[in-house]
Design brief:
- It contains one helix and 16 strands.
- The protein has 193 residues and is an all-beta fold.
- The protein has a four-stranded antiparallel sheet with strand order 1-2-3-4, with no helix packed on it. Strands 5-6-7-8 form a four-stranded antiparallel sheet, with no helix packed on it.
- The longest helix has 4 residues.
- It is globular.
- The two termini are 20 Å apart.
């Protein structure tokens, strides 16, 4: 396996891309993104995220059809990369003002979804489950003031996805995926993975 502790996955229509933090359990691994085919075989293609960002701790990954977006829990930022894993140095969303607010103490970005207009950033709070939430940012990275809490279903949400109508949050502790409507209300739908 290329990634000992995978944390995030995205799909470009042909390949899966897997990443995970280079953290305390895999200190010998650089923060990489690995490409797999639909059979689950590693293609040999990868991107080293640490070449363009110091201290990156990739916790979320999303592909919008053109670019990849990486949620960095180490620096509390969202970065954009092209399909060759070259970072767009002109694009960066700094989440620190929002996540660094004293009321958000202990918060770390753990997932990202982009709908073409807005970014939805999953923040996981290690101290207060009622602050595990999805925060909405506009295309310029400005926090809109809109958020919804997801910590009531699982105390360690780890990634976010959407089908264009509903949001899906992975609950690491329960091993379940939870469905929320477009306004952030939990639908009651969940399933084990």
């Amino acid at each position: 396996a290329q990634r000992e502790f995978p944390h995030a996955v995205t799909f470009d229509g042909t390949y899966f891309y897997i990443t995970g933090p280079a953290g305390p359990f895999d200190v010998d691994q650089a923060p990489m993104v690995y490409q797999y085919d639909s059979n689950g075989d590693y293609t040999g293609f990868s991107g080293d995220l640490s070449l363009s960002v110091t201290g990156i701790y990739p916790a979320g990954l999303y592909f919008d059809g053109t670019n990849f977006y990486v949620a960095d829990a180490g620096n509390q930022k969202i970065y954009r990369y092209n399909t060759l894993w070259i970072r767009d140095s002109g694009f960066e969303i700094n989440l620190a003002p929002q996540l660094g607010d004293p009321q958000f103490e202990g918060m770390a970005v753990s997932g990202v979804y982009f709908d073409g207009t807005n970014f939805y950033v999953l923040g996981e709070n290690g101290l207060y489950d009622d602050l595990d939430a999805v925060y909405k940012y506009d295309i310029n990275g400005v926090y809109t003031g809109n958020s919804f809490v997801v910590g009531g279903q699982d105390t360690k949400p780890s990634d976010i996805a959407s089908d264009g109508t509903n949001f899906y949050i992975i609950g690491t502790n329960s091993g379940r995926i939870y469905e929320y409507d477009q306004f952030g209300a939990y639908s009651g739908v969940n399933f084990y993975v």
